Predict the structure of Lipopolysaccharide biosynthesis protein.
Amino acid sequence: MQAKILNIVGTLLFALNQWMQVILITRLLGLYEVGLFSYFLALTGPLVLFSRFMLIVLVPTQRKLSYDYVIFHEFRNLANYAFILGSLIVLLFVDLSIYESICLFIFVLFKFYENKEDFIYTENIAEARISFLAYSKIYKSIVTIILFSAAVFIFDSLVMAILSLLVSQMIIYYVYDCKFSFSKKRANIGIKWREFKNIFILGIGLSVVELLNSLVSNIPRYVLEYFHSVETLGIFATIMYFVIITNNVVVAISQSVVAGLSKEAEESAAKFYHSFFRLCGIFLILIVIGEAILLTFGNSILVLVYGERFSGYQDEIILLGILLIFTVYTKLFEMALSIFNIYNLQVLLQGTTFIAAIILSFIIIVPYGLTGAFIVVILTYLILAIGQIGVLIHHWKFKVRS
């Protein structure tokens, strides 16, 4: 229990670290730069999630394969290099200046090392060594805060700020994370084509789900940037960081309990759902507290953190409150579906949501801008949540009551 709480604390600190980055860029560099930073996240996000192949969920929960961590590690390495190649292709086709292209390339390298770290997290989650995750996030947050702040204050440059992220990631990866890797301490046995194919087939469904999930989140950003401005995207991104913080907390708690819930699911679906519904109830209490704070002090918090230019976004604050509810529960429902290896239906759900996001973005965001972007995100989450609940009810009916 102590390790799980420490992991949540580490995740909160890491989320605050990410928020600090947005605050410093917004206040010291400008809305254009924070919009550009958000655009880089939107461009690389789908590639990052697809290349990770969701091994962080697949390895602890899969029951069809019994491969050593080394095999999964080799698979991740190949996927990582594919990520670099895919990012370079994207870099060739997006309309950026030379300076902005350099920023994006450094950002890609940062994400490359973050992917490498993610697999060490995967190994430790599978072994239920949650304390490592906590300390890694805490150390990385401290190092990143120091280097990122120094880069922004001293150089007043986005490229140096992004470079500080890469340096921080590499320091933690080589100095701390690698010591806790299981695969790095074992002989490199190499991955065979059959093993690669088996992992690919097992994980492709969940990987596509994450890819579509990322695209659903980022399509409103693409449309907002193209039809309005990078500055408007910057405002949207800064407010949306409350969603990212919430999502990180849910992911942290999920990482802490996924191994235990997976074991309960193996014993019986009824036992799993008992624990899962209790987890949903705990989050409901946290949501009520969070919503009360957000609706009461939300606008004041925006002005205090980002400056007077963020005054007057009361409508967006209300929409944000609605969005946070869907953020929590769609992520919890996704974890439940993954534990039961229900991947194909998740692809169908995310595919439907993806199509809806495209249509709604052009219908709503083009004429209504920033407010429309929040409405589109809420509607896409609503569609996803309805589908997830339907699948879980169907699973309950045939696995628990049958």
